Amino acid sequence: MDFYEVGQIINTHGIRGEVKVKTITDFAQERFQKGKIVYLLMPNEYLELKISDVRTIKQFYLLTFEGYNDINLVERYKGMKLGINEKQQQKLGENNFYYHQIIGLKVVDENQNELGQVIEILSPGANDVWVVRRIGKKDLLLPAIHDVVKKVDIENGKVLVELLDGLDD
Fold first, then answer.
1. How far apart are CA 37 and CA 25, in angstroms?
2. DSSP string computed for 28-50
3. What sequence ranges are listed for the domain Ribosome maturation factor RimM PRC barrel (predicted)?
4. Stated pTM of the model
5. Residue 168 burial (CB count, 10 A)
6. Distance CA 113, CA 108 (A)
7. How far apart are CA 60 and CA 65, in angstroms?
């Protein structure tokens, strides 16, 4: 079964098993609801968890899981990722993609010159930034905006980009 990250447990909160979660999803309100299932992603296995209580504090979600009502039961999960399985993924609109669909794609410019491969996606603010690993050069940082990303072709594993002045040194 494939899992996709939606959050990370960054700390415990209080003594009743509540955990503080940093979200890694655009669908946090849908993912983190009472009764929903998430998976604790461990190195060689996963643990299915049912959310029994949810509240927010600043930009974080505070979650409690069924059967984990004590800090001693959840403390060991600090730093671990929470995920969903592929059946739980939302359908996306046209020209919208999940990170896992973009990471690994080849990046080519308008002249079909291969620039590298997307290895990571950063979310620093107004738009995402795709980190493109290049051979013999430092990584290229591409803003994921329509002026730069012209076409994403998941089936053929390519992204067509237009390098605006100043993007490549």
1. 15
2. HHHHS-TT-EEEEE-SS-EEEEE
3. 100-167
4. 0.69
5. 14
6. 5
7. 16
pLDDT tens-place string over residues 137-146? 999 999 999 9
Scan for tokens 């896992």, then name that residue: 100
User: What homologous superfamily is domain 99-161 in, according to CATH?
Assistant: PRC-barrel domain (2.30.30.240)
Cβ atoms < 10 Å from Cβ of 32: 22
Helix (H) or strand (E) holding 4: strand 3-13
Q: Per-residue pLDDT tens for 81-98? A: 999 988 887 777 777 788
Domain spans of the chain, in order of start: 3-88, 99-161
Q: Are 18 and 11 in contact (CB under 8 A)?
A: no
Q: Which of 42, 39, 40, 62 is nearest to 52 (CA)?
A: 62
3-88 CATH fold: Elongation Factor Tu (Ef-tu); domain 3 (2.40.30)
**What is each CA distance from 130 to 23, 72, 119, 123, 143, in whole angstroms?**
19, 39, 8, 9, 6
